[in-house]
Amino acid sequence: MLTVTEAAAEAISALTAQQGAEESGLRFALQSVQEGEGAQLALSVAPSPQDGDRVVGTDAGAKVFLEPQAAALLDDKVLDVQQDETGDVAFAVLPQKTD
């Protein structure tokens, strides 16, 4: 199952707070699959999960909604945030570390 870091949970909470709905969350959906390039995921702030979405909640109250195909792709991943060279923060999907 997708793991959400504390930093990502804080970023999701900040984004969804702007929506004003307690049920809102960050939604991943499969946008397209291109041979040789892998899958493209669409990311959006959604007021609630859609039918069939898997909901991943965090201790901080942040919610991530995963469309079924996106859930399968992200099952062994970690959602984090990273800062780029200009200081902008972006979500990053990383492999889970195995011990």
Description:
This protein has 2 helices and 7 strands; from the N terminus they run βαββββαββ. The longest helix is centred in the first third of the chain and has 12 residues, at 6-17. The chain has helices spanning 6-17, 68-74, and strands at 3-4, 25-34, 38-46, 54-57, 63-66, 77-83, 89-95. The strands form 2 sheets. Strands 3-2-5-4 form a 4-stranded mixed β-sheet. A 3-stranded mixed β-sheet has the order 1-6-7. The chain is globular, with a radius of gyration of 13 Å. It is of the alpha/beta class and 99 residues long.
Give a short overview.
Helix content is 19%, strand content 43%. The chain is α/β, with parallel strands linked by helices.
Q: What is the overall shape?
A: globular
Largest sheet: 4 strands, mixed
Q: What's the arrangement of strands in the largest beta sheet?
A: 3-2-5-4
- Summarize the helix and strand pattern as letters: EHEEEEHEE
Helix/strand-derived category reads alpha/beta
Strand content: 35-45%
Total beta-strand segments:
7
Number of helices: 2
Low-confidence stretches: none
Distance between the termini: 17 Å
Mean pLDDT: 88
Oligomer: single chain
Measured on Cα atoms, how large is the radius of gyration?
13 Å
Helical content band = 10-25%
